[in-house]
Design goal:
InterPro entries: DEAD/DEAH_box_helicase_dom (IPR011545), Helicase_ATP-bd (IPR014001), Helicase_C-like (IPR001650), HRQ1_WHD (IPR055227), MZB (IPR018973), P-loop_NTPase (IPR027417). One of its GO terms (molecular function) is nucleic acid binding. By secondary structure, this protein is of the alpha/beta class. It is globular. The structure holds adenosine-5'-triphosphate (ATP). The site of adenosine-5'-triphosphate (ATP) has 14 residues, from β8 and α6.
């Protein structure tokens, strides 16, 4: 015992898996510990500095190290410092790390988080720098020259360019300004340089003026705004009462549109009318004035939901004179948000009509979709809409490159983040203004960091000419970035799909996609951000090693020949309907007889649910008046209904130093990003999360410069809770679909977080795994589509000596990978049940995909409809993949969405299962 107090034996594990026990005296210092490790792990650590971790926290630190108790029996791990980044010498002597004080450090409490050791270190041999192989030239190039430059330069040795395609330019088709346009309107158009309309604009304007609901579905930058601005401005400038409501899904778009309207407005000086934005950023002091005066109110669905509809009396003048409702970017309304938006539009229509006797004309604009008319009819529950889709705007030619990162000496594909970063650097160096689209916020941050590192070496003056743009940033930061991009101060941004929408950031020459963005509509929308008007542009699609990207790299015609998808919005989601009907009832009592035309046939059953919950009461004493009054205890139920995700709780990420909220993350997503020990990235800066307060839902973090990033390990269980899912509406009108035994059912999904991997940035490889079990599981109810695998198929697989469960796991991954080819969804919309290796008999004989949105947004019923095609497509994917590994590769059955992405997989078995299922279904019908 006495000996233990004086001598401590700790176990230290190296990043490469080696492990040893180290014995240290009680009075040992940091230096002693380092010396012991250097001798234990020589020669690897002979001249390298390293990070040393106890339960995820770097122990080699500043003066606080003196308080650090490393207890006898503790397990530590270390990672050598990869890149030589000398830090300022420490001014304090190496502290005694075993001070004998009571153990103060607590991982869960996490008060003490220690910075990287502040000691200069001799630089280790640097890994080959991307900058060393990047171009240092700065000569301005046009897109055609850039294609050649890439062919001869960074794309030459690795053979990255697997395909090039040129989409030719198109001449504009004009028509004269319609004769009925007022002279003020003509002047207004002239003031923004417009003397003729494109033919699609003329058609849209005419239809709207005639009172027809219209949807304009044309390419990016095809002049869609004028399709609504002309009829609206004509209407409100010609008499003093008509009003209009513009609804944009983001505040940035509202600001952008206000700018255009204010440019046109002076031409109408004789008839004064107020155009104002009314959104969450509108100052309280301005709100009454705007409510009293605005003739053209620009807002968003959130504001309609939270503020305008619940207080509709304050907007009486506008709502009773509403001539037009403009819904721009209608394709944005899908998934959970689309479901809420559809019901908010119904609430708006109901209030306008039932309370104020007004039936406005809708004008929708959307990106190119397969079903624009059906989509907006469902969105606003309209019976008739005029479709305008013959795009007559001009466009310049576009060069597309499909770019597959080369296979390295280690037989792995080189990191696509790095490839995009190199391309990004090339573009900005050669004067091409560029947007690098990334699928996630984290990838944007990684691309920014890597590109800056490259530019530091190749053109350091351009390091600050790029930044990240994403939805989570505070509004003023985003406005600044948009202005800087427009004004030329910035040459490029790494952006999420937040920049997909039509915010005017000036001319963009080049767009990059880091992986397929999830849908063809998104792909074209992103690509359309470059080459606005008739200027030439370049677009490069950089592939991940995943199945879908590799499928497109192998079969480019599938990409370029593929039609854009249908956009689905499911306004029948029971949970959303319940929330929205409570809001609607609080605005104006529900009437069973009349309101079904807004809320559909499930309205009455939801009314019963709300009645049982004590939210509604029948207006008559006999209880049969058909009028339902809201009596819930929330005065404004909309305050508690979040429409951007169907969940109420969010975790705040707070920077300890500045006490600033960096981000708010929905509860269901929070633990994928923040947990104790997580590396959290924000604006190119990495933070270490040192504490999660589960009660107040706050993750505290500090700026930390570490050589690794983290990836959480999670495990998901799915159980059916009874109840079939409604048939997808398209099932009635698609007689040619492949029939299937797949079923769609309500289910409960529970995710548990069991630890995280630390991945070394320098080699992009796992260093070690930290386990934990303190995070609460997260459960939600949703919908799943699944198919039972017949026993005969299982028997065939087992007779061949293949692992059945590993085959199910692999086949599920393949199915998930090909989904975006068939449905408008991306990897984060659906999940698959990855079979447990031990095989729970209840769950092991099925392939299951579940809707990741709480309550389900109709994806399961849509997938059920397509299940036969999905099976065939998954089989084609696995069979045509040339890899010979029994556990496949990322191009076929390995999925990075699964935390065990490369474990428990069997390619051969997957083929047998998919084939067996297809065969079984054929025989069954
Ligand atoms: N008839 C026209 N003649 C010439 N230029 C036009 C005409 N109509 C629109 N434009 C110009 O085309 C550009 C793009 O217009 P606008 O922003 O309305 O397109 P959009 O289709 O709404 O774009 P996005 O898809 O990004 O939302 C603007 O600069 C606009 O002035």
């Amino acid at each position: 015992m006495a000996n233990q107090q004086q001598q401590r034996v700790i176990r230290v594990r190296a990043h490469d898996g080696r492990s040893t026990a180290v014995t240290l005296a009680a009075a040992a210092t940091v230096q002693d510990l380092k010396t012991a490790l250097r001798s234990s792990f020589a020669p690897a650590l002979a001249s390298r500095d390293f990070h040393l971790f106890l339960k995820g926290v770097n122990l080699l630190a500043d003066a606080k190290v003196g308080n650090l108790p490393i207890a006898h029996g503790d397990s530590l791990s270390f990672i050598p410092v990869a890149a030589a980044k000398p830090t300022p010498p420490s001014t304090t002597a190496p502290p005694n790390i075993f001070s004998g004080k009571k153990r103060k450090f607590s991982w869960r409490g996490g008060e003490d988080i220690y910075a990287k050791i502040a000691k200069p270190t001799p630089p280790p041999p640097p890994p080959p720098s991307p900058a060393a192989i990047s171009c240092h030239g700065m000569l301005p190039l046009n897109p055609t020259q850039m294609v050649e430059h890439l062919r001869e330069g960074m794309g030459k040795s690795g053979g990255q360019i697997t395909h090039s395609e040129e989409i030719p330019g198109r001449e504009a088709m004009f028509s004269d300004l319609p004769i009925h346009l007022s002279s003020a309107m003509r002047n207004a158009l002239r003031s923004i340089g417009i003397t003729k309309l494109y033919t699609h604009q003329s058609l849209a304007v005419k239809s709207a003026v005639d009172g027809e609901h219209v949807v304009v579905s044309t390419s990016t930058s095809s002049g869609k705004s004028l399709c609504y601005n002309i009829p609206v401005l004509e209407s409100i400038s010609q008499s003093s009462s008509p009003c209009a409501l513009y609804i944009f899904p983001t505040k940035a778009l509202a600001q952008d549109q206000l700018k255009t309207l204010l440019e046109m407005k002076p031409a109408f000086s004789q008839s004064e009318f107020d155009v104002s934005i009314y959104d969450g950023d509108t100052a309280m002091k301005d709100r009454t004035r705007i409510r009293n005066n605005a003739r053209l109110l620009i807002t968003n669905p959130d504001m309609l939901h939270m503020s305008i509809l619940p207080c509709h009396g304050q907007f009486k003048r506008i709502l009773s004179n509403l001539r037009y409702i403009v819904v721009d970017e209608a394709h944005y309304y899908k998934g959970a948000f689309g479901c809420h938006a559809a019901l908010i539009l119904r609430r708006l229509k109901r209030i306008c009509s039932s309370v104020y006797g007004c039936n406005p004309t809708f004008i929708f604009c959307t990106a190119t979709l397969a079903n624009p008319r059906e989509h907006v009819m469902e969105l606003a529950k309209l019976d008739r809409v005029v479709l305008v889709e013959n795009d007559a705007s001009p466009c310049g030619s576009k060069k597309f490159l499909l770019w597959n990162p080369p296979i390295t000496a280690q037989e792995r594909r080189s990191n696509p983040v790095l490839e995009v970063s190199r391309l990004f650097a090339e573009m900005v160096q050669h004067g091409l203004r560029c947007i690098a689209f990334c699928k996630t916020r984290k990838m944007c941050e990684q691309v920014l960091i890597q590109t800056r590192q490259i530019l530091q070496k190749t053109a350091s003056e351009l390091v600050d000419s790029i930044c990240v743009y994403r939805g989570g940033y505070v509004a003023s930061d985003r406005r600044q970035i948009e202005a800087d991009l427009f004004g030329g101060k910035l040459r490029g941004v790494a952006a999420t799909n937040a920049l997909e929408l039509g915010i005017d950031v000036g001319h963009i020459d080049a767009t990059l996609h880091l992986g397929f963005p999830g849908s063809m509509a998104s792909f074209w929308q992103q690509a359309g951000r470059s080459g606005r008007r008739s200027k030439q542009s370049i677009d490069v699609y950089v592939a991940f090693d995943g199945a879908l990207d590799q499928y497109f790299m192998r079969s480019p015609h599938k990409l370029f020949g593929k039609p854009v998808e249908h956009c689905q919005v499911d306004s029948h989601n029971h949970k959303v309907l319940e929330q929205q009907l409570a809001c609607a009832a609080s605005e104006y009592s529900l009437r069973s007889e009349y309101d079904e035309c807004y809320f559909g046939s499930s309205m009455n059953s939801v009314i019963t649910t709300l009645k049982d919950k004590g939210c509604l009461i029948n207006n008559s004493s006999g209880g049969n008046s058909g009028v339902w009054k809201y009596i819930g205890h929330d005065k404004k139920p909309s305050q508690n209904v979040s429409i951007r995700a169907i969940e109420h709780h969010r975790y705040k990420v707070i920077d300890r130093k500045s006490n600033r909220v960096l981000e708010e993350i929905e509860e269901s997503k929070a633990f994928f990003q923040v947990y104790e020990g997580a590396i959290y990235m924000h604006q190119g800066v990495s933070y270490l999360v040192d504490k999660i307060d589960l009660c107040s839902r706050i993750a505290y973090c500090k700026v930390f410069d570490l050589d690794y990033y983290t990836k959480v390990k999670d495990y998901t269980e799915i159980s059916f809770i009874g109840g079939d899912v409604d048939e997808h509406p398209a099932s009635q009108c698609k007689p040619d679909i492949t029939r299937t035994t797949a079923q769609a059912n309500a289910c409960k999904v529970t995710t548990r977080w069991v630890g995280f991997d630390r991945i070394l940035k320098s080699i992009n490889q796992k260093s070690d795994t930290i386990t934990f079990n303190h995070l609460p599981p997260y459960s939600f109810e949703t919908q799943a589509v699944w198919v039972q695998i017949p026993q005969s198929v299982r028997a065939t697989v087992e007779q061949r000596g293949s692992q059945f469960l590993h085959g199910v796991h692999a086949a599920s991954h393949a199915l998930l990978s090909i989904l975006p080819l068939h449905m408008m969804c991306n990897g984060s919309d659906l999940g698959t049940q990855c079979a447990e290796p031990q095989g729970n008999s209840e769950t092991s004989d099925r392939i299951l995909l579940y809707d990741k949105h709480s309550g389900g947004i109709g994806l399961a019923s849509q997938a059920k409809l397509l299940f036969g095609e999905l099976l065939a497509s998954a089989l084609e994917l696995v069979e045509t993949c040339s890899c010979t590994n029994f556990d496949g590769c990322p191009s076929c059955i390995q999925s990075f969405a699964c935390s065990d992405c490369i474990k428990n997989l069997d390619k051969e078995a997957a083929i047998l299962i998919l084939k067996g299922l297809i065969q079984y279904e054929k025989l069954y019908f």
